[in-house]
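Field reference: sequence -> structure
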Amino acid sequence: MAELTLLFDGGCPLCLREVNTLRRRDRGVGRLAFVDVNDPAYDPARHGGITYAEAMGRMHALRSDGEVIRDVEVFRQAYGLVGLGWLYAPTRWPLLRPLVDALYGFWARWRLAITGRPSLEVLCRERCAVPSSAAVAPQTPAQHLHPAS
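Structure field:
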């Protein structure tokens, strides 16, 4: 069993690039496993109960002990397992950690729009068994600066 199973968006070109880098580094070792949440066979019950909407909204991984980790911590641990932990080591520093975590939050919120994908609301309408109000699409920059009254 892999030490860390990363849940990733197989429809995201940047996500695929990252996953392929990690796969190459882990080739033949098996510390990492990867699950494409865009696969129609994705089953939250087999992956820590993490729904499609949750997995698409931010990075998740499952440790071999069943613990769910999220966001930048996934990358810290994954890169550490493939011998590249030094790349993410500065993100643990007390002054950088909150900044990096905030930047990741921004990235996670805008990732679909930045990569030219439909909003999470649209994707969930097609895939999720949750009301569309539970999946809120990010505002465009203009909406954020000038919200409707």
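Note: The longest strand covers residues 4-8.
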